[in-house]
Structure prediction request, 132 residues.
Amino acid sequence: MNKVLLFGRLGRDPEIRVTADNIKVCHINLATTERFKDKNGEWQEGTEWHRVVAFGRTAENCEQYLSKGREILVEGRLRTREWEDQTGGKRWTTEVVASNITFASKGTHAEDGRNGGRNGRTDDHLDEEIPF
Prediction:
């Protein structure tokens, strides 16, 4: 079984692209933070960054409602892709292909000075899951 469940915060606004078949693709950088005690008993925090990709209607909703700092819950599967870089070397990346994204916060962005998602909306109606 290939299943991923991540809860975290967007590190930047979603990046949107459109395929040759006119399908939207959204790339998200998601930070997850873990608290743990080190060998001296001191609390530490560790942050992991995850690449998340969404397609179609899910990508459209991400473009419309998500922005830097927003907390989300992502359900999906892992996928590793390989490609050739400009010098001819092989490169790999592992990303989460999202099947469902749930908004976990109302979109108050103290980090970047905005309130509510885009264009100053408060997004109060996003308390519940939006079907993607």
